[in-house]
Amino acid sequence: MPADVLYLSREGVFPIVRDADGRPLPAATGLPCSGTIQGEGKLCGVPSLFIRLQGCNLRCLWQSGSAVSPCDTAHASFHAGGRPCSVAEVLSLVDHNIGRLRHVVITGGEPLLQAPALLTLCRALKQRGLHLTLETNGTLYDDALCRLIDLLSISPKLSSSDPTPAKAAAAGVPFAPAAARHAALRVNIDAIARLVGCARECSHDVQLKFVVATAADADEIRHTYIDRLPQLSPADVLVMPLGTDPATMHGAAMAAVGMATAHGWRYSPRLHVDLFGNREGV
Ligand code: SF4
């Protein structure tokens, strides 16, 4: 992969009101300005510009009642490829749209799959004095890149995300390759420990965000992850309700509130879903 080309999802840099040449565009939010709020985690509510990269090494499929929820960014995650875009073009989009925003969120897919070009981009973004959040599923690590990140936002996946034949059929995803990939890669404590250690060493911030459906998820969070990461503070652990629509999320919300309260973790809403629904580019 060339070190100066990034593969973006179809929403790419969003929400924007200017293209890379500075020509006006309508923003997906319906607002007259670029940017949206971060909807999750410690920086929930902070106005931010997002950069979504294509491709993920996992294949999450969730079930809530009879409804199967594939990854909420399946278009960006379940397919390789994406739109090739030079680092210079991404920077031009940022420069034309950053306005008074100070926060840039790099998300996916799994951004660390594109670490070489992302390193070039992040160096340039830091030179502009911007705060960087990197959203990662916690299965990969890149030292030079992670040292530039102000908030390492790690979203390890629970077994509730594992593909099953029924979930794969409902989502229209081939079961066997998805299940094999997920089983081989989903839990990588060494990668998470290195991400947390990097944040500590650089005096940057870190969070572990878990999507939860029932109270029973707390035991898996503890046994699979938290008990094996002694350097982590409970205040760095956030739980968010499962769901890509407000009704499903609200159904899981009390389970998340209960485990946050019992373990000293934090509850995180998914504010963007409440405000905009499960839409792209907002
Ligand atoms: S790790 Fe994240 S981006 Fe990748 S499939 Fe799972 S939910 Fe989607």
Walk me through the structure:
The structure is a single chain. With 282 residues, the chain is an alpha/beta fold. The protein has a single domain, classed as Alpha-Beta Barrel (TIM Barrel), CATH 3.20.20. The chain contains ten helices and twelve strands. Strands 1, 2, 3, 6, 7, 8, 9, 10, 11 and 12 form a ten-stranded mixed β-sheet that branches. Strands 4-5 form a two-stranded antiparallel sheet. Helix 2 packs parallel to helix 3. It binds iron/sulfur cluster.
Bound molecules: iron/sulfur cluster
Structural class: alpha/beta
Question: Taking all residues together, what is the mean pLDDT?
Answer: 94
Poorly predicted tracts of residues = none
Helix count equals 10
Portion in beta strands: 15-25%
Cα gyration radius (Å): 18 Å
The tally of domains stands at: 1
What fold name goes in the CATH topology slot? TIM Barrel
Name the overall outline.
globular
Could you give the order of the helices and strands? Answer: EEEEEHEHEHEHEHHHEHEHEH
Largest sheet: 10 strands, mixed
**Helical coverage, percent range:** 25-40%
Q: Quick one: CATH class?
A: Alpha Beta
User: What's the CATH architecture name?
Assistant: Alpha-Beta Barrel
Strand segment tally = 12
Q: What is the distance, rounded to the nearest whole angstrom, between the alpha carbons of the first and last residues?
A: 28 Å
